Amino acid sequence: MSEKVQAPPDAAERRAKPPVVVYPNGTLPPSDMAMLAAARERLTKIGEIVVPPREGGSFRVPQGHFFRIVSIEGPQVGDLNLWNADDLSERFFSGKTRALHATHVTTGDRLWSTLPHLRPMATITHDTLGWYGWDGDGAGIHDVIGTRCDPYTHRLLGGGDYHHCCHSNLSRALGAAVGKPAREVESHVHDVLNVFMCTGFTRDTHQYFMKASPVRPGDFIEFFAEIDLLGALSACPGGDCGATHSSDAAVCHPLKVEIFATESKLLAGWAPPRRNPYGREHGA
Question: What is the average per-residue pLDDT within 115-121?
Answer without folding.
Answer: 98
